[in-house]
Amino acid sequence: MKQKHLIRLSQQYETALEKLLKQGPGGNLQPALALGRAVVALGMDTLDLARIHDRALASLGLTDVANALTRLAGLFFAEANTVVEQTHRAARASRDSLHRVSKALDRRTEELATSNRRVHRGIIRRKVMADAFEKSGRHSHQCLEESLKLQKLLRQLTHRALAAQEDERKKISQELQDEIAQTLLGINVRLLSLKQNARTNNGGIKKEIASTQRLVLQSAGTVRRFARGLTSRKLA
Q1: 216 and 187 in contact (C-beta within 8 Å)?
Q2: 3-class state of residue 67 by DSSP
Q3: What is the separation, in whole angstroms, between the first and last Cα of the chain?
Q4: Which value, to the nearest 10 degrees, does the dihedral of the CA atoms of residues 32, 34, 39, 42 take?
Q5: How many Å apart are CA 24 and CA 108, to the nearest integer?
Q6: Which pLDDT score is estimated for 25?
Q7: Residue 203, pLDDT score
Q8: Counting beta carbons within 10 angstroms of the beta carbon of residue 13, is it exposed (0 to 12), middle (13 to 18) or buried (19 or more)?
């Protein structure tokens, strides 16, 4: 299909060039511009246009001639090629601009990817910190619960120790009361015996007094012993 258009374009070029050559130097070059646009429309470049021009010169018998006609033909070619060159320059400029835009987009894409990676790392760090903080909070709560349990246990042990000490003091006090009561009862019996023996036997009275004194000393020793026992238990 392109070959068919190329043949038609070549014929049109030759016809327009021949017409210009007949008109001479004052001829109209506008058809050359139209042919240049046709070359561009077919996607061809300056080299393709030069081949078409050479075939037209050969067909018109101007290949080996250097005169006013060939110079005029050269102007026709230059005029047609102006459109081609302008279009190609614009295309090149567009390609260059597109290339620059593409590079800028690539850089921007890379920058966005880097930013995304940084954000992702930041999210991971925040999550790790949040998890650590949550674990720390749970650990602190657990330590607080254990501390409260230990305080409760310590209060219970202290209460038990105080209760045991109180029971021990009551027991010692009761034992002291019982022994003192027994001792006082013994002293009372001795005194009654002394009262009865005082009428008849003075020697026996002395013995009873001495025995009673020993009983009193024994009672005093018992009281001191129990008192020391209470003191040592309080200190403990």
Answers
A1: yes
A2: coil
A3: 120
A4: -160
A5: 58
A6: 86
A7: 67
A8: buried
User: Using alpha carbons only, how large is the chain's radius of gyration in Å?
Assistant: 67
Residue 140: count other Cβ atoms within 10 Å of its Cβ: 10
Instruction: Give the model confidence (pLDDT) of 126-164 as tens digits.
Output: 888 878 777 877 777 787 888 888 888 888 988 887 887
Q: What DSSP element (H or E) covers 2?
A: helix 2-23
DSSP string, 54-65: HHHHHHHT-TT-
Q: Looking at residue 36, what is its pLDDT?
A: 92
- 8 Å CB contact between 75 and 29: yes
> Which two tokens mark 108?
């921007």
**3-state DSSP call for residue 199?**
coil
Give me the amino acid identity at 193: S
Residue 14 binned pLDDT confidence (cut-offs 50, 70, 90) = very high
Cα distance between residue 120 and residue 107, in whole Å:
20
10 Å Cβ neighbour count for 22?
Answer: 9
What single-letter amino acid sits at 56? A
